[in-house]
């Protein structure tokens, strides 16, 4: 399904506005979730790390 979405003109123009320049992969979201529940994030509190390819960093 992702391959079909990436071939449309509308999707291509949307991707051009994204900092990552591509659609996110399910593995990227899974890795972010795994980090949040791991011991590596033991000093992070009361924040939801965005997994948005850098979109919120440009706001």
UniProtKB/TrEMBL annotation:
Residues 1-10 have a biased composition (Basic and acidic residues). Residues 1-23 are annotated as: Disordered. Coiled coil: none annotated. The lineage of its organism: Bacteria, Bacillati, Actinomycetota, Actinomycetes, Pseudonocardiales. SUPFAM superfamilies: NAD(P)-binding Rossmann-fold domains (SSF51735). This is Enoyl-ACP reductase-like protein.
């Amino acid at each position: 399904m992702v391959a079909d979405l990436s071939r449309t003109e509308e999707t291509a123009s949307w991707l051009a506005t994204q900092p990552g320049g591509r659609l996110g992969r399910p593995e990227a979201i899974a890795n972010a979730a795994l980090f949040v529940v791991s011991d590596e994030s033991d000093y992070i509190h009361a924040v939801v790390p965005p997994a948005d390819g850098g979109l919120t960093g440009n706001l």
